[in-house]
Every structure is written in structure tokens, then in C-alpha cells.
Amino acid sequence: MRRLVMKMSISADGFVGGSNGEIDWLFRSADEGTTGWVVDTVWRAGLHIMGSRTFQDMVAYWPGSTEVFAQPMNEIPKAVFTRQKDFRIDPAHSTTALREARDFRGIKQPDTPPELGNWREAEIVTGDLASEIARLKSQPGKDILAHGGAGFMRSLVALDLVDEYRLLVHPVVLGRGLGIFSDIAAPRPLELVETAVFKSGAVATVYRRAS
pTM to 2 decimals? Predict the structure, then answer.
């Protein structure tokens, strides 16, 4: 059985986005070390899963990108979780996170949508979250890597579906924002298996279920 791994950038006070989904703060502490750590994490996956808003952001960004993250994001199979029975890919979709990512890198929205490649082949999952995650875990292959957004991650955490947390903690305090751990009913012990400190002040921490 393969594991579900959550990768998330998080502030020092535990938020994954500002109150309106802002993520500009995480770009300020990105450096060569954090980039390498995230790229390694992404390449370990056999399947990327995400909520529908994050999927629309990514499908609008990665197919036309030449960044170091683009190859694993474009090549590795994807699944999108949505309650929309008539979900459709829309590269013109835009959220605060997508706009801030483009602004930080000085990338303009393309005049014509890029070729979407295997993003068009993403599995659209509309069933019960816990049952569908169990189904995907039972399949052979490398780990399942969960991306955002905050609501999707919060649901995975609340249902105790995550086997490993790969958290990149950024040196910033937001004070308020979007959290992913607020719906846990009782404490859950974790085992620390890896840490890495980067020049920017960001710290990578990897936790697994306590044995």
C-alpha cells in the first residue's frame, strides 16, 4: 500500500495562506536549498492530488513553465478532487495564489493557453474523500503527494488520511490566515524523521505517524 504525503509551505505561526489566500510571503524566503528540497519531494511522487482550485491554478501555470519544478509537475499523473459533477479544466482560471506566483517571477498571463499535455488526462474524483483516498493508496506505485488548497488539506488532516507531513516552515508570522490543522478532534502524536535548515531561515520538517 502506498502512502499519502502532504507537502505544504507554512508560516511560523501555522498558516498556509493569508486571510484571502495570499502566498507572497513564502516567495521571500525561497532559496536554492528550499527549491532543491521541494523538487526532491515532488519527484518522489507517483501521483499528484489536489483540490479543484489548486488544480486550475496549476494547469494554468505549469504546462508553459520552464522552471525546475515544471518537469515533475507536468510528467507525473494527477488527480483532482472536486464536488463539481461537471468539472472542466479552465486554464483561464485565476486566484490570488496564481497571480502572486506570476508577479513574483515576472511572468505575464499568456495570450493563448499552453498545450496541457497529460493535465488533460487527470483523473477527476468526486466520491467520498476517505474512500477515494483508500482506493488510491491500495494501488501499486510510488507515494501520493497532496498539494493544496487549504480546504482540501484541512479535510485530509481532519480525516487522518495523511501518513507523512513534509512541511516547509517559513520565517514569517502572519497573525491570521488559513490553517489546515484546526479541525482535528484530538491530539495525534507524530515522529520527526527529517529536518533541514536553509540559508533563508526556512526550515523543512518531515513528520510521520508515531509508531
Answer: 0.87
